[in-house]
Structure formats: C-alpha cells, structure tokens
C-alpha cells in the first residue's frame, strides 16, 4: 500500500450505550456517525476488536476511510484502535482521534499531531496501545465545568440546552475538519479552521 492509497482510520471516542449517547464525552461518536452518513456507510460490529466499524471512500475514487467507535468504554479505547490499525495496515500517522477537549472553549475546534493527552483517558489508552503519540487529534472544545463541578461528572453529562442549539453545526464542522486533514493535511487544516 502506498502513502497515497492507504486507508485512514478515524476513531470517534466515546462510551457505548444509550445512557451516554448525549454526553459531552461522546462527541467523537457523534462525529463518526455523521461521517458514516456522508460516506453512505453503515456501522457493523467487529467483535474481534470490540468496535463498531464502517468503511467507505471519501469522494469518488478518494481515499478509503475506516470509521470506528470503540465498545470498550473510553478508558480502554486504545485496544480496538490498535487492533483495527493492525488489521487494515494503517500507520499511526494516518490515525485520527476525534474527542472532547476540556481545555478548549465550547464551539472551538483544534487539530494537532502528537503531543500530550491532557488527562484524557481515551487518548492515553490510544497512545499506549499504538506505542506512539504521533497520531492526529481533532479536538472538540467542550470548555471547563462551571463552578466546582467535577470534570469527570461534567464530561459524562449531556450538553446543555444552549449548547445543543449549536451542536449539530459544530459536529458538522468537526466532520469537515476530519475530511480536510485527510485531503489537505494537518497544517493547511489548522490554517483554515483555527481562526475562530
């Protein structure tokens, strides 16, 4: 497989189960679902790696995308990601993690390659399982919890009413960012989307 034709692996991070579906921590699942819709792809269960997986191509004859939503809960996301990366022969630099980010204001999207995990257990698990931190992160800002609310409780609570008014637009924009990373690269995407 050449650099131009190899697949990309997009890991939407979150927790499985209806009770978590609207949580801030599950925004990665929301973006993965929208990307699957755009690719006209359906998620199916890969029991061997404990993940829901969808496959498709970005545009006519475009690069292959493998979308996954780990079914292991956030803290163990790395196992399914590394398992699928191995199965589809995806190099770590073609792995994209889409995740919630406490250190970025709500409504902001940021892209970076590598770096620390900022206390995010899903990223920590991915770095450990992949054996590297050199994968792309699409960071969806959820902001810090109000007052003295525990961050762990905050990320496992649903988006508020005011946030939900913008949520569909922001999930759509995050999906655009993922596609831009694949078609343009990380730096051009940063230049395009880091303005606001």
TrEMBL record:
Its EC number is 3.1.1.29. Keywords: Cytoplasm, Hydrolase, RNA-binding, tRNA-binding. One of its GO terms (biological process) is rescue of stalled ribosome. It is found in: Cytoplasm. PROSITE patterns: PEPT_TRNA_HYDROL_1, PEPT_TRNA_HYDROL_2. One of its GO terms (cellular component) is cytoplasm. Gene3D superfamilies: Peptidyl-tRNA hydrolase. The active site is at residue 25. The record marks 15 as: Discriminates between blocked and unblocked aminoacyl-tRNA. The record marks 100 as: Stabilizes the basic form of H active site to accept a proton. GO terms for molecular function: peptidyl-tRNA hydrolase activity; tRNA binding. TRNA binds at residues 20, 73, 75, 121. InterPro entries: Pept_tRNA_hydro, Pept_tRNA_hydro_CS, Pept_tRNA_hydro_sf. It catalyses: an N-acyl-L-alpha-aminoacyl-tRNA + H2O = an N-acyl-L-amino acid + a tRNA + H(+). Its main location: cytoplasm. The keyword Transmembrane helix does not apply. Hydrolyzes ribosome-free peptidyl-tRNAs (with 1 or more amino acids incorporated), which drop off the ribosome during protein synthesis, or as a result of ribosome stalling. Monomer. NCBIfam families: pth (TIGR00447). Belongs to the PTH family. This is Peptidyl-tRNA hydrolase. The lineage of its organism: Bacteria, Bacillati, Actinomycetota, Actinomycetes, Micromonosporales.
């Amino acid at each position: 497989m050449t650099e131009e034709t190899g697949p990309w692996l997009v890991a939407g991070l979150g927790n499985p189960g209806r009770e978590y579906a609207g949580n801030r921590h599950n925004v990665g699942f929301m973006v993965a679902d929208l990307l699957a819709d755009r690719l006209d792809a359906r998620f199916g269960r890969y029991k061997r790696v404990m993940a829901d997986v969808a496959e498709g191509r970005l545009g006519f004859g475009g690069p292959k995308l493998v979308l996954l939503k780990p079914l292991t809960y956030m803290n163990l996301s790395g196992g399914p990601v590394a398992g699928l990366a191995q199965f589809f022969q995806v190099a770590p630099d073609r792995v994209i993690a889409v995740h919630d980010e406490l250190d970025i204001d709500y409504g902001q999207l940021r892209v970076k390659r590598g770096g620390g995990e900022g206390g995010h257990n899903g990223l920590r698990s991915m770095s450990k399982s992949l054996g590297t931190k050199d994968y792309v992160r699409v960071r969806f800002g959820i902001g810090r919890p109000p007052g003295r609310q525990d961050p762990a409780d905050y990320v496992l609570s649903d988006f508020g009413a005011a946030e939900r008014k913008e949520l569909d637009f922001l999930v759509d924009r995050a999906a655009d960012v993922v596609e831009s990373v694949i078609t343009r690269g990380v730096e051009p995407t940063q230049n395009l989307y880091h303005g606001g």
